[in-house]
Amino acid sequence: MSYRISLLDKIPVAQDDTPAEALKHTLHLAQQAETWGYHRFWIAEHHNTTRLASPSPELLIAWIIGQTNRIRVGSGGVMLQHYSPYKVAENFNLLANLAPGRIDLGVGKAPGGLPLSTKALQRGVQDKASFADQLAQLDNWLSLPAAQDDEETLRATPVPARSADRFLLGASLESATLAANLNWNFVYAAHLNGDKALMREVLSSWRSRSSLDTIVAVQVIVAADAEKADQLASLVEIWSVELENSQRVSVASEVQAHAFARQAGSAIKKIERREPSLLKGTAETVHAGLAALSKEFGIDEFIIDTPIADPTARLQSLRLLAGVQPAISHLDFAAQHDAW
């Protein structure tokens, strides 16, 4: 296999489960992911939702690194628009001291929630900088060396011997350029935007600007047979919403789409359910699909998002993915299937 595989977990709360139970399932998944040989385990950030229990990746990273030994653990990602870059740097410098060489700082541009939570998170914030300026400030705080014991010198203490590896998540030429200019890693968010023409354009631009790896996040569902995978995939919803005020967003249900419009104070101009961009099937089929994408787009690493709330089915999906190599070549797969 010519590519690495890592995981992104959103800590879904299954029907009849509590958030506490969902968190325990995620810890168990992280421990199993380490045993199964996954490269990274990332936690997403989402606010004000009963469906996901992950508003604070930093806290969960600290919890998970204390109960694993080798796997890299990180955020996928911190929604920087809500926070002080200095405080984010402090948090991840602290984590990098706790687990040297194992911490990833992934940063995203999205709000990670609907307008109600965004307003609450940003209440009292004045002179808000652009995202590019915030990212540059964060990079600076993470890059500064330790200083002498001088209260007049500002550092994001405790400064670690090795800082967290840095990743920008996005699906645009702007994000790829920003990451390259700062010498950050870039993760193309194909799990949110599966437009292959756009992905080709963005990744081509990325490779022309950076020598770092090509990393792509994709949605994957693996089951013992194709019928079960189709059944699980049928539960995944993605709704595109365009408001009269020109705001556009993708959400996970029609209810969320209407809530977004109400909270944004604008009428819906257009709403439609999209087919999710995901790889599904048996482990052999999915591995062949990943191999085909890796070959076509020069992908070095996949970040796997498994959009299954049921903890048993989610664990089974990732166990099967970890244990099986492709039984058909990527050329045969490409001839028989569209990856998504």
Topology:
Blueprint: E1 4-9, H1 19-36, E2 40-43, H2 57-65, E3 72-75, E4 78-79, H3 85-98, E5 103-108, H4 115-121, H5 131-143, E6 165-170, H6 173-182, E7 185-189, H7 196-209, E8 215-222, H8 226-233, E9 238-243, E10 248-251, H9 254-264, E11 268-274, E12 278-281, H10 283-297, E13 301-305, H11 311-323, H12 330-336
Parallel strand pairs: 1-2, 1-13, 2-3, 3-5, 4-5, 5-6, 6-7, 7-8, 8-12, 8-13
Antiparallel strand pairs: 9-10, 9-11
Provide key terms for this protein.
oxidoreductase activity, acting on paired donors, with incorporation or reduction of molecular oxygen, EC 1.14.-.-, 20% strand, eight-stranded parallel beta barrel, 2 domains, 41% helix, three-stranded antiparallel sheet
The CATH topology name of the largest domain reads: TIM Barrel
Q: Outline the low-pLDDT stretches.
A: none
User: Span from first to last CA?
Assistant: 20 Å
> Helix segment count?
12
The order of strands across the largest sheet is: 1-2-3-5-6-7-8-13
Radius of gyration: 20 Å
- The CATH C-level class name of the largest domain: Alpha Beta
The H/E string reads: EHEHEEHEHHEHEHEHEEHEEHEHH
Characterize the biggest β-sheet.
8 strands, parallel, barrel
Number of self-contained structural domains: 2
Tell me the name of the CATH homologous superfamily of the largest domain: Luciferase-like domain
> How many strand segments?
13
**Overall morphology:** globular
CATH architecture of the largest domain: Alpha-Beta Barrel
Average of pLDDT: 92
Oligomer: single chain
Assess the beta-strand content as a share of residues: 15-25%
